[in-house]
Amino acid sequence: MRLVILGGGESGVGTALLGKKEGYEVFVSDFGSISEKYQQVLIQNEIDWEQQQHTEDKIVNADVVVKSPGIPDKAPIVKKLREKGVKVISEIEFVYSFAKNTSVAITGSNGKTTTTLLTYHLLKQGGLDVGLAGNIGESYAKQVAVDPEKLFVLELSSFQLDGNINYKPHIAVITNISPDHLDRYDYKYENYIASKFRITMNQTSEDYLIYDADDQAINNWLKNNKTKAQLVPFSLTKTVENGAYLKDNNIIAMINNEEITIPVNEIAIEGKHNVKNAMAATLVAQMMRVRKQTIRESLSNFQNAEHRLEKVAKINKVQYINDSKATNVNATYFALESMTAPTVWIVGGIDKGNDYDELMSFVHEKVKAIICLGIDNTKIINAFSPIIDVIVEASSMQEAVKLAASAAEEGDTVLLSPACASFDLFSSYEERGTQFKNEVHKL
């Protein structure tokens, strides 16, 4: 069997290792360049590879092609493979047949990384043999090659779900849905929503779908479509029977008549959206029989991902917060919602078709100055100049942090929450966040 892998990053190289172990003839092809680190892994494992090109003859003769989630379906090589009837799948789909244990899969426009990390933390503290993969950490394929018996918690993007055919998680979580990546879905929101719900398409009545019952897009889909999974809702606004809800500032989570109560003020991460993330993770932990006491303790000692509402430092009584991972408007909405002090907001980058209207009330109420950090800031300036007097542009992170520091007064917060992708000035949101932290520490 010939396995061709398009993309030589973490996901692609991990898939190559698993494919080799399972007896496939493996070829890795990357249209860009493969990093030195991954080249070494391929060479050491005697796996055939190429970079800066796709040699068609070596690709179209594949029995199965695994493509990196970053490569769009519109890419010429993918179109060519589909024309020839070659199966093109995701890493997750490929690995699924070799994993010996069930998985927990988490998707959503926002909150999925926090919810994935939190779920993993709860299950690990609960003594389960658990791994963390998908859109986060080491690849699922590489980890299953080493330990196929583990239970995995997977963070899945819509791009990863698009390449799944038979993959089925035992427990699926949809944190929320808001417009994102519409450039990959013909600018049709319904296509993106359908992509997210692929997480439940193969689930049976033995499986579970945990979802935000306050989310309009999710409710609409469930009203008009069917899933065989048992539905487990969570909500901040209404009481639910089998699921989680809020009562007197406590989370009440009920699964199979087993109830747990968690005071919201004991959760380590702040903000309404994180109450929802905690609800989702708690429900998974209950299903996996983690003890109540362990769940409570784990929620109180959890540390969130870097670049996600990360408190960097307090300088001259001004709090600096790094939320570089907020690459869309909805993520920034949650960040602004959780601000309690007057805020100097650093925003901008590559716009993904953003609509800033939903931020207006928070900006009006909480933001005192805006620092635009992008190559083209016209849209941001046009959106907010009617309500914010101080809007300035910066062409580097150093300049942005200095401008923010001079605009901020004692008791204020400086928030980097860009609402945009980072690729105009930075290689990734991680690099953007790291530069922010470095510049803050230089103040």
TrEMBL record:
Q: List, for all copies, the residue spans of the domain called Mur ligase central.
A: 106-285
* One of the GO BP terms on file: regulation of cell shape
Q: Where in the cell is it found?
A: Cytoplasm
Domain Mur ligase C-terminal as annotated: residue spans: 307-420
Q: Which GO terms describe its cellular component?
A: cytoplasm
Instruction: Please state the Enzyme Commission number of this protein.
Output: 6.3.2.9
**Pathway annotation:** Cell wall biogenesis; peptidoglycan biosynthesis
Q: What chemistry does it catalyse, as a reaction equation?
A: UDP-N-acetyl-alpha-D-muramoyl-L-alanine + D-glutamate + ATP = UDP-N-acetyl-alpha-D-muramoyl-L-alanyl-D-glutamate + ADP + phosphate + H(+)
Q: Which residues bind ATP?
A: G108, S109, N110, G111, K112, T113, T114
Q: Which GO terms describe its molecular function?
A: ATP binding; UDP-N-acetylmuramoylalanine-D-glutamate ligase activity
- N-terminal signal peptide: none
InterPro entries in the cross-refs: Mur-like_cat_sf (IPR036565), Mur_ligase_C (IPR004101), Mur_ligase_C_dom_sf (IPR036615), Mur_ligase_cen (IPR013221), MurD (IPR005762)
> Which branch of life, at top level?
Bacteria
Top EC class per UniProt?
ligase
Question: Which key words tag this protein in UniProt?
Answer: ATP-binding, Cell cycle, Cell division, Cell shape, Cell wall biogenesis/degradation, Cytoplasm, Ligase, Nucleotide-binding, Peptidoglycan synthesis
Job of this protein: Cell wall formation. Catalyzes the addition of glutamate to the nucleotide precursor UDP-N-acetylmuramoyl-L-alanine (UMA).
| Protein family | Belongs to the MurCDEF family.
The protein, known as: UDP-N-acetylmuramoylalanine--D-glutamate ligase
What's the source species' lineage?
Bacteria, Pseudomonadati, Bacteroidota, Flavobacteriia, Flavobacteriales
